[in-house]
Amino acid sequence: MVNYIVGGVISGLGKGITTASIGKILQFYGFDVTAVKIDPYINYDAGTLRPTEHGEVWVTEDGGEIDQDLGHYERFLDKNIPKDHNITTGQVYYAVIQKERQGKYLGKTVQPIPHVTDEIKSRIKKIAKEGVDFVLVEIGGTVGDYENILFLEAVRQMKLEGENVLFVHVTYVPSIPTLGEQKTKPTQHSVKLLREIGIQPDFIIARSEQPIDGVRKEKIALFCNVHEEDVIADPDIDNIYAVPLLFEEQNLSKKILRKLGIVGKKKGKGYREWRDFIDKIRSLKEEVKIGIVGKYFDIGSFKLFDSYISVIEAVKHASWKNGFKPKIEWIDSKDFEKDENKLNILDKLDGVIVPGGFGLSGIEGKILAIKYCRENNIPFLGLCLGMQLAVVEFARNVCGLKGANSTEIDENTPHPVITYLPEQVKIIRESRYGATMRLGAYPACLKRGTLVHRLYGKDVVYERHRHRYEVNPDYVETLEERGMVFSGRSPDGKLMEFLEIPEHRFFLATQAHPEFKSRPMKPSPPFDGLIRAAKGLL
User: Looking at the annotation, which residues are catalytic?
Assistant: First the structure.
């Protein structure tokens, strides 16, 4: 069975959270659920998109570079979702053109309909054959966009072909302060556009600042041709993980199952566990202050933090597990480059994270922040670039390697303590940047008796990666002689995966992105360790 989630009125309504939440409430009834994200951009994948333009690039276990919504699916559903569960216009057209070049269309004129729509349908149907009970398909963009019209046409055809399909339309019901009421006209027009395409929504999810009232529900039902009970209120709430409970309060799962002819199913213990989890979060009082020293904030006159959404969620998961209410302080590393006196703001924090990133901007500011944390015994966690810069800082200021740097930042550095992975040299020379990094889950062998081994409780762990650069093995001995410990390495011992400074209260960094495997009830061990150290519990 396939549910399609489409959006209207404006982008950014939370279709990803809606999709993940519908999946969660179906899991409450014991169903096996997976999810698919359709992105109508022509990019083959999200790997080359700017974080400030499209948010975080999510990395799958099998090395896909995907829209951040897949992260929501994995966190809510607590399951790994493979890269072929992301479908883009670029992938579809690339496949169609390849088939045309191979003569697979037998001389026919290749057209958007049926050839492109058939390719879309075949990809969805392939996923539906994986043996799960429900496939949730989120169609990116907004109804009325040129970019997603062929995807909507494809799913319209699937409904017509007798597939077991439901359509969920996520729309916006704005509150106009000067009028003092909610307006349903944008929703009416959005559904009108959807019906002109040939799709009648089965459910309308009404996003709003405040819950929509009975009058608004009645109006939406009348003008949008749905039953009033199938208009689901989805107001702003204090925690995204409470959205499944919000939907369950309105019996959305039972309504979905009834429309599909499924009766007699009862909620399992998963519902009670999720409800108790939300109750615990809402009861927390004591804060833990974590600073994230980043650079992907500014977009025009606004500051957006979607570039670090998985880091944010991982901090939340670890904080909640340890009984604290997370308070995240956003720190632009470029501010430290302008005025080093501002570094003392780090003293007000319980812990600091330097996350991943690319390029020159804000690099020296991050290095200054790492130095301050090391010298002032402030709990520190470095992720990917954060680990590389921790090595650069240590090499310069502890090992006395003047001018030490990453070759990404300075190709002529006298001490290239961070350099290309060997297989990346030819790739960079040929300017092949798409899907060519070290991507996906890789094993790391942890050294017994170290902090990282204590946190994971295992000899070998798998974390996800997305990088071209690594610690230069020529400098490992020098770094370790001065007190840095490489506590996790690749199985062949050539790649440094984790580092720590034992004499420090908590100084841990990894070349991986452990935030991608953090779950609401199973926080990532490095983040768990940071929070515990921040509060003196480690």
Answer: 384, 513, 515
The residue to which tokens 């490095």 are assigned: 526
pTM here is 0.94
**How does DSSP classify residue 110?**
P
| Distance from C-alpha of 522 to C-alpha of 520, rounded to nearest angstrom | 6
| Domain total of the chain | 2
The CATH number linked to 324 is 3.40.50.880
Contacts of range 525-528, beta carbons closer than 8 Å, 24 or more positions apart: 525/452, 525/455, 525/456, 526/381, 526/452, 526/455, 527/314, 527/315, 527/317, 527/318, 527/381, 528/318, 528/321, 528/322, 528/455
Where a domain ends, among 237, 256, 279? 279
Q: Tell me which residue of 451, 462, 463 sits closest to 508, measured CA to CA.
A: 451
Interior/surface letters 392-407, b for 16+ CB within 10 angstroms, e for the rest:
bbbbbbebebeebbbe
Residue located via tokens 């960094």: 509
pLDDT in tens, 318-364: 999 999 999 999 999 999 999 999 999 999 999 999 999 877 888 99
Q: Which domain holds residue 188?
A: 2-33+111-279
Q: Could you tell me if residue 52 is inside a domain?
A: no
